[in-house]
Amino acid sequence: MTAHPESSGHDHDQAVSPDGPRQPRVLVFDVNETLSDMSPMAQRFTAIGADGHLAATWFASLLRDGFALTATGANPSFAELGAEALRNSLRDQVGNVDAAVEHIMSGFTSLPVHPDVVEGIRALHGLHIRLVTLSNGSTAVAQGLFDRNGLTDYFDRLLSVEQAPLWKPAEAAYSFALAACGCEVSEAMLVAVHPWDIHGAHQAGLATAWINRTDARYPGYFVAPDIEATSLVDLAAQLGGIAA
Questions:
Q1: What's residue 1's pLDDT?
Q2: Choosing a second label site near 44 at 20 to 30 A (CA), which of 8, 79, 86, 134?
Q3: 145: burial class by Cβ within 10 Å (0-12, 13-18, 19+)?
């Protein structure tokens, strides 16, 4: 078990005690890259004649610009922002830019989940913890992902910042999710692969679980997660071994 009790230094009552994390009542999942495997998006780029490496650059720029707009109080559409970023990236690389953008953006509707997700979600649900999502993307994309993989019935709520005041990692996004679930901040834990999401959730008072599938190094400039797990299966094993 990899826990980081030293990361609990904030003013909120959180699902972490001086002795380490306790089992939350609600797990709040990020969707893009945490549950969905976005590696097939590179094939969408190569299919239109662009470099597959542009997929990662494009997604990073999409998040960057979304965060910048969030910092100024805006709540942009994930799909609209993504499409516009694509038009800028592909303008000099393909002939029919609109068709290329449509081809790439439609890739979100057919993404798979990571290999550990189905087993891990079932195991976490078996701990009698409520499972919800909170995505900067659309609810429809999460719904399709879960329908394709038989996961819909395991989740109480599918939430998106579409209905929130701001994108994650703004505190208002996490507060929106807590209010929608009718739970206290001390009862909730965010699950994500993104350190920026972990940091934002921590600042909002939630406990945090970082899913580190690639043995990456956690950035020192973000607050450390309360739990680090190599997969959702590992997370279920860790949470199953601590008190509620």
A1: 45
A2: 134
A3: buried
Distance CA 60, CA 67 (A): 11
pLDDT at residue 8 in the model? 43
| Arithmetic mean of pLDDT over the chain | 92
**Predicted local confidence at residue 94, as pLDDT:** 86
Per-residue pLDDT of 13-53, as tens digits, reads 555 555 566 899 999 999 999 999 999 999 999 999 999 99
- The sign of the CA dihedral 118, 139, 152, 44 is negative
Residue 50: partners with Cβ closer than 8 Å, 6 or more residues away: 89, 90, 93, 94, 100
Start-end of H helices in the chain? 41-47, 54-71, 78-90, 97-105, 117-125, 139-149, 171-181, 195-203, 232-240
Please tell me the number of Cα atoms within 13 Å of 113 on its side-chain side: 24
User: DSSP states of 104-131 as a string?
Assistant: HHGGGGGPPBPTTHHHHHHHHHTTT-EE
Task: Kindly report, residue by residue over 166-208, the tens digit of the pLDDT.
Answer: 999 999 999 999 999 999 999 999 999 999 999 999 999 999 9
- Rg (the chain; Cα; Å): 18
Q: How wide is the angle at C-alpha 122 spanned by C-alphas 20 and 113, nearest 5°? A: 100
Tokens matching residue 141: 């994309």
Task: Report strand pairing: 188-192 vs 157-160.
Answer: unpaired
Domains and CATH numbers, the chain: 2-36+112-240 (3.40.50.1000), 41-110 (1.10.150)
